[in-house]
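sanity check this fold:
=====
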Amino acid sequence: MGQYFVKRLLIALPTLVAISVIIFIILALAPGDPLGEFASNPAITAEVRENIRKSLGLDQPAYIRYFKWFLAFLKGDMGYSFNSRSPVFELLIQRLPATLLVVGFAYILGLLIAFPLGIISAIKQYSATDQIITTFAFLGFSIPPFFTGLLFIIIFSVQLNWFPFIYNSTLQVTDWNSLIEQIKQSIMPIAVLALYHAAVLMRFIRSSVLEELQQEYVRTALAKGLTQYAVIKNHVLRNAMIPVVTLIALDIPALFTGALVTEQVFRIPGIGALLIESIYRSDTPVVMAITFIYGILIVFFNLIADLVYGVLDPRVKY
């Protein structure tokens, strides 16, 4: 397994370099000027704008800017935001807690909902329970999260007045009352994301478990006198979880980059909202850092998923 890990790592490194090059080229060719906000300001002359452009390195060729950025990134320096003039790393650290709080709890809740319901739906195929769970899953991933978010706001904020519809980023938890307020303002965005993730995972889990239940080894184990619970727990789930692990590995990086649409709907100051704002303002260093970190997380968690395959199914040879 150690040799396999090293080989996969050697493949992952040039992959990440290629990802960084592609992202940088796309951002370099994208329309928009990070200094466009100064163009309409009569107090800032063309000479001053040019000096600012030189100070940011925008007067240099794209390949030189890329190599400077890449070498700095290897040292942990993600550059400075064109708009706020703050280090990109500090901006990410400021936004990360809100993203992890909402998206992290939503994903954990989605897993806790999806696994038991998906397994029950597969075991009780074509029953009334299966029909209800399947309908819930179809509704969950068919309705966009932004629509679910707006629906929740109309029902629970406007009509019932149970929860605030705008996330208060300045709220600090110092006592019991502030903790209650933090929980209340987090319930709706967490619920929206949890329902979506649970619906997607449920369909995968149900299909995967159903496929394994039809295998010969299941019938053989049942014929030998093993209970259905023992067969599912000891045999079916280990094999059924292999494709599910891939889906989870692809979804986990979203915990760090945030939910773009949901954060916008509820005005959550997370990394997803920061990415949207940076794209709108042509803040290339911030966009570059967030998208490249997302690429790193995708490659890393796919590598972890490959290693987990061997734990779940010894037939998988490295």
Notes: The chain has 14 helices and no strands.
